[in-house]
Amino acid sequence: MNLLHIDSSALGTRSVSRELSAAIVAAFADRHPDLHVISRDLAAAPLGDWSPGHTEDAVLEEFLAADVVVIGAPMYNFGIPSQLKAWIDRICVAGRTFRYDAGGPVGLAGGKRVVIASARGGRYAEGAAAAFDFQEPYLRKVFGFLGITDVEVIRAEGLALDEDHRAQALAAARDAVTALRLRAA
Ligand SMILES: Cc1cc2nc3c(=O)[nH]c(=O)nc-3n(C[C@H](O)[C@H](O)[C@H](O)COP(=O)(O)O)c2cc1C
Questions:
Q1: What is the 119 CA–ligand 1 centroid distance (Å)?
Q2: How far apart are CA 127 and CA 139, in angstroms?
Q3: In the CATH scheme, what is the code of domain 2-182?
């Protein structure tokens, strides 16, 4: 089984999304001794220049070969980090991961499981603030567009509100990883 592990936080060892994405990968590794993990740290090694339409791209091939994709995705200014957006620009390739037919777009990358470790300073899960969330809905839409229906989000939010909220959010997210561990069959 191939797992692609993507991180995009600029915060290094203090990053919540990195802690959670690593725990998610460990959960899969526990269940799958044969797991083959490829890690791509988009903050440590930003993707370089490329031209759209370039057919041989290691970034795209890694994505296509993955059975499971685990993504550490902080919220930056209501969306995702620019380095993560640059990765998405590399994996959305007409003719490889989607195509258009008369009925509209058709995703070609189905059958994968995507697990997103989401971290954000504020709270967006409910109420009026939900309209400001261009991070999780965006990621769900992009993977849906590529034909991937199995998308799960493990979320720690309200991290910047105060110490209590932060502790509660971290505990809930760690519990969600444990639940994932139990069903990571
Ligand atoms: C450049 C930048 C922009 C951010 N923008 C937002 C934002 O729009 N909304 C929010 O709730 N938190 C925002 N935050 C806070 C982060 O989402 C929060 O610190 C989260 O823990 C980052 O994930 P990480 O811990 O994995 O780095 C921002 C942080 C940075 C560094």
A1: 7
A2: 20
A3: 3.40.50.360
pLDDT digits (tens, 9 = 90+) for 91-145: 999 999 999 999 999 999 999 999 999 999 999 999 999 999 999 999 999 999 9
Could you give the C-alpha distances from 2 to 62, 66, 69, 124, in angstroms and in order? Answer: 9, 5, 9, 32
Nearest CA, atom 10, ligand 1: 121
> If you write DSSP's letter for every residue of 88-111 in order, what string do you get?
HHHH--BTTTEEEETTEEEES-TT
Residue nearest to atom 8 of ligand 1 (CA): 77
Q: Which residue shows structure tokens 């959305």?
A: 92
Ligand 1 centre to CA of 121 (Å) is 5
| Interval between CA 172 and ligand 1 midpoint (Å) | 18
> CA neighbours within 13 Å on the CB side: how many for 167?
3
| 18 CA closest ligand 1 atom index | 26
pTM: 0.96
**66, 112 Cβ separation under 8 angstroms:** yes
Pocket lining: 76 vs ligand 1, CB cutoff 6 Å: yes
